[in-house]
Amino acid sequence: MSDMVLPGDKIASIEEYEAGHNTFDDGDMVRAATVGRKEIDGSARTASIEHPKLLSIPKVGDIVIGTVAAVMATMMAISIDYINGKPTTSKVECICSIKNLRIRNVALVNDIVMLKILNHLNGTIHATVEERGLGVLFTKCRKCGSKVVPMRDAIKCTECSWIDERKLSSDFGSGDFVKLRG
Ligand SMILES: [Zn+2]
């Protein structure tokens, strides 16, 4: 069982091998993204992990859309639903720092957000929300759960008129996104 690895385990150097299935490249090493058996292909020069389910691991620079799973003081965790517009069912999570944003509620749990993948560090996928196009695509009123509409940098509830803040994507409220979700 010596070929079995755990998520985050180093499986090869990126100087020798490319990241294959179920792995990611952290800029130095190819690491396992899942539990499985290590597969080194010497002719294709790829290092992969054999796993019954093929995971979709976003690469650095990919644009992902996901559901906010948790919001903490300095970061939030997002369950990824789309990678570069393609749906993914493997529910890989990424972490997004929110500590540099001067926004009251960057996003709420269950909001839909668009992020860009920054890097893979120690088995964790890190993403950013700090670009104009990135941010919340869908949110609700924190007080009553009703629909909100954008108001300059803020949002306003159409029911209770509560004004709040989010890091809105420039695509917030776009019809394309509704189609994408359906
Ligand atoms: Zn409300």
User: SSE order in H/E notation?
Assistant: EEEEEEEEEEEEEEEEEH
What is the SS-derived class?
mainly beta
Alpha-carbon distance between the termini?
Answer: 43 Å
Please, what is the CATH homologous superfamily of the largest domain? Nucleic acid-binding proteins
Q: Can you list the ligands bound to this structure? A: zinc ion
Tell how many strands the DSSP assignment holds: 17
The CATH first-level class of the largest domain comes to Mainly Beta
Q: What does the model show?
A:
This protein has 182 residues and is mainly beta. The chain has 2 domains: 4-50, Beta Barrel (OB fold (Dihydrolipoamide Acetyltransferase, E2P)); 63-181, OB fold (Dihydrolipoamide Acetyltransferase, E2P), CATH 2.40.50. It is built from 1 helix and 17 strands. The protein has one helix at residues 175-181, and strands at 4-5, 10-13, 18-19, 23-25, 29-32, 36-41, 46-50, 63-71, 75-83, 86-87, 93-97, 112-121, 124-128, 135-138, 148-151, 154-157, 163-165. The strands form 4 sheets. Strands 8-9-11-13-12 form a 5-stranded mixed barrel. Strands 1-6-7-3 form a 4-stranded mixed beta sheet, with no helix packed on it. Strand 6 (36-41) and strand 7 form a beta hairpin. It is elongated. The N and C termini lie far apart (43 Å). The model has no long low-confidence stretch (mean pLDDT 88). Bound molecules: zinc ion.
